[in-house]
Known about the structure:
Helix 1 (6-15) packs across helix 7, helix 5 (119-128) packs parallel to helix 6 and helix 10 (251-262) packs across helix 14 (408-426). This protein is of the alpha/beta class. The chain has two domains: 6-168 and 385-407, 3-Layer(aba) Sandwich (Rossmann fold), CATH 3.40.50.720; 170-374 and 411-492, Dihydrodipicolinate Reductase, domain 2 (2-Layer Sandwich). Residues 1-29, 33-37 and 377-382 have low confidence and may be disordered. It contains 17 helices and 18 strands. The longest helix has 19 residues, at 408-426.
Amino acid sequence: MSRLTRRGFLRSAMATGVALAAPGASRNVAWGSERGANDAIGVAVVGVRGRGQSHIQSTAATKGLRLVALCDVDSTVLAENVRKTEGRGGKVAGFADVRKLLECKDVDAITIATPNHWHSLIGIWACQAGKDVYIEKPVSHHLWEGRMLVEAARKHGRVVQVGTQARANPDVIEALSWLRAGNLGAARFAHGMCYKPRLSIGKFGLGEIPAGLDYDLWTGPAPLKPLARKNLHYDWHWLHDYGNGDLGNQGIHEMDLARWFLGHTTLSPRVMSIGGRLGYDDDGETPNTQLVLHAYAGPPLLFEVRGLPKDRQCQADAALWNKSMDAPVGFSGGRTIGVIVACEGGKLIIEDGGKTLLAMDPQDKIIKRFEKKDPQRGIGWTKGDAFIFENWAAVMRSRKTADLVAPILEGHLSSGLCHTGMVSHRLGCASRPAEIVERIRADRLALEHFESMKEHLERNGVDLAKPSLVLGPSLAFDPASERFTNNDAANKLLRRADRKPFVVPDVL
């Protein structure tokens, strides 16, 4: 897939019978037992809040798929979505427990849109039950279970697609082919970024579990603890038991693109993190400001998270909070989510999965735009949501897993870059800027980005005279064994003891 142009991708898609109509257009929408039920692939959506809504729509709108079941641990949310589906003329079964769902003969495949700590376990259970899988990013909550999901897919011969939609965007594929043809010379490094302001989640929150929600099932393999945050939903991203911070929430998309465009096919042999949860004091645990350095034998990969706005004035003005960030040249401004691939002859800008996609020369003059045009979808196509479901459907029929645009191994590796970066952070010590500069002095690229981070924090009123930034250890890593080679404490963070009976099996 990495060598396909947009035209080649579309030709391949049409050859396998994949529908190319725009989402929401007049297509063979398959709700429950609607037309095509006899030969369509029966799909169940697990986790129907948030991203699960997109899975419901994409399943129903994709030719060859039929929505047959929904699963959610919140009985109120589940009942509401079953009713909505019936209101569209379909009929679906509802399940609270995914284990019961996987026993259903009508279910051929599932999509997973649960919190991160459930992703790999449900995926492995589905493979063992003979179901194909579409899994949201990150594919794992920690590194080891992601590898077990890769092995489960192989062992049971299942089609497992990852929700890194930009890999299915024909414009992104075209840009990759253009770059690898040498049009900008050799790649020097990639800088991924998630500059996405996040408000504080509050201090000492004692939230209320929604009526109808099975908190034991929601917690699953994580430790069962009292709810100690104001909001059960979404804010779990910022707690280590369930989420992976913005590194593994939004950042995984850009981390994946950066690794893909650099051509790295393994996890990095060395990683270090600098960052912290700064600018406010709340119940969150994960960094809202972070610089992760992945050293490869080839071009390095740097990734940045900035959860504070551009400056202190934006913090004071709620209307500006989500609109003002430090946007590098080539980006549209406001929240900045994307990748810069720096090359000998210029740079490639990939914003928000392809929302903006252009090449610039060393003087920042635009030399090529990859326009978001498609003969079927028109202008404005960005992330490839429909393409990735269509590709998944086609491969479930052909069983040619090599044709997947976002296969589980690639998802595991990119998720793993997030995990190893977070391991370095969790083992770090609060440090002053001078100490950090001394550690990274020999790395000009790292030093340059750290200085930018420092300026950003100072504009937000963070007192860096205090040891507030966490400097993580430089961790050596063996990509073959997927183990750290210089830190036993780091290896202990690659896997956790799951809560019974929600235990990730050792597939190997």
